[in-house]
Design goal:
414 residues, alpha+beta, TATA-Binding Protein, 9 helices, 21 strands
Length: 414
């Protein structure tokens, strides 16, 4: 077993990753987004079946191994679980959404990647992926008796929802994104979905506030792997550790686990259950709309949104954001907190004021904790990773930090 060699990062490791890492050519580049990240206790069973004996390696060498990985071809199955600890209130939250229960609105399609890929931000999902270089990728989300597939093959990007028998089609810009007229229509770059994407996000954030060590070995999807362990050196972060299982042969991350500092099961866990680095069959990347399927072009979605007025509404929403005075960052590293001024300085309506419907008030109360400090008073809205403090005088403090750290940051700002 490899020893627990460590490297306290000082920015040089990050520079190595950024400067030398290959483009993630074998990863579906328009896939999912986390979490972030993104965002992903999934697969404890698939992670360990005896710790293999592997040659010693340092943390720096393992980071360089990830950066140097140039595998362009693979296929396999990934299981991903995201548990951010957001309370479930049944259909209550959904009842506040405009047009809830009425199906896709004008300018939308059930086969469009936007909503489908965001489903990976919560729950447990099984994905099948395949890639053959930068121009051919396929990602399929397997449901109960249904499947959603996103296929990139050369100039074309196809989305297919088998449940609704709807098809989405767009032209690719050559980077895994779909462009339409004047580059307006882009499939979402999304949150990281594969273990390598998640690992690169974590390594890019490493700096002198971070400890990186080799935490032994494991077997993932039947392959020998080293475990790279990334931990904040600061107290007050909601992130306890990030563990990346790295294939000992190829340097490809096979499993990514983000453990919250509060303990319990992983907040984000994604790992291959099987993986093959052979060239996938060409049929994996071919797609023909099934007979009777409704095909929607990206340009049609834009035109439908314009006709329905949805684009005007979106522009109004964006113009409202111009009222923000920008943000200041308090602290650094894992405990950095963003301070944002809300336009008009409006905080939450007071409880019992009658300004909020009873159901909405119930939803807010379930999410938030009332807090006070030198800054005044406000409400902290919590997940297992990202927390936000909305003060009564209309400021927002948000970060991957604990409630106490948010209050301390708000007091510091005063």
């Amino acid at each position: 077993m490899a020893p627990n060699d460590s490297a306290e990062t000082n920015g040089e490791a990050t520079g190595t990753v950024v400067g030398r890492r290959k483009a993630a050519r074998y990863i579906v580049p328009f896939a999912v987004a986390g979490v972030a990240a993104a965002t992903i206790g999934l697969v404890p069973a698939l992670a360990d079946s005896g710790d293999p004996e592997l040659p010693d390696i340092t943390a720096q060498e393992l980071i360089e191994k990830i950066a140097a990985s140039d595998e362009e071809q693979l296929s396999g199955t990934v299981k991903i679980t995201t548990d951010l600890g957001i309370p479930s209130l049944g259909g209550l939250a959904g009842s506040f959404a405009p047009g809830a229960g009425q199906g896709p609105a004008a300018g939308e399609s059930s086969a469009s990647p936007d909503a489908k890929l965001m489903e990976l931000a919560s729950g447990t999902h099984t994905l099948r992926i395949a890639a053959d270089g930068p121009d051919k990728q396929r990602l399929s989300i397997l449901g109960e008796g249904s499947e959603y597939s996103l296929v990139h093959n050369g100039d074309d990007v196809w989305g297919y929802d088998s449940e609704s028998n709807e098809v989405y089609h767009a032209k690719s810009d050559g980077k895994g994104r779909a462009d339409g007229e004047a580059g307006k229509h882009k499939a979402p770059e999304g949150m990281p979905a594969t273990p390598k994407e998640l690992a690169e996000e974590a390594l890019a954030a490493a700096g002198d506030t971070t400890s990186v060590t080799v935490g032994g070995t494991a077997q993932v999807a039947g392959r020998d792997a080293y475990k790279l362990v990334i931990k904040p050196k600061q107290s007050g972060s909601t992130v306890g550790s990030v563990t990346v299982a790295v294939d000992a042969s190829t340097g490809v991350p096979l499993k990514f686990t983000l453990a919250p500092s509060s303990g319990g099961k992983a907040a984000v866990d994604a790992g291959f259950t099987d993986v093959d680095f052979a060239k996938p069959d060409a049929s994996s990347f071919s797609f023909t709309p099934p007979k009777g399927a409704e095909v929607t072009e990206a340009d049609e979605l834009e035109a439908g949104a314009e006709k329905d007025g949805a684009a005007d509404e979106a522009r109004k929403d964006l113009s409202a954001l111009e009222g923000f005075k920008g943000l200041d960052v308090i602290g650094e590293g894992w405990t950095a907190v963003a301070e944002i001024d809300v336009p008009g300085g409006a905080g939450l309506p007071a409880q019992g004021s009658g300004d909020v419907p009873a159901q909405a008030q119930q939803f807010l109360d379930a999410l938030g904790d009332k807090v006070t400090g030198d800054f005044g008073s406000g409400t902290v809205f919590k997940t297992r990773l990202v927390n936000a403090l909305l003060t009564d005088d209309g400021k927002v403090y948000v970060g991957a930090v604990t409630k106490d750290a948010l209050v301390k940051a708000a007091d510091t700002a005063k």
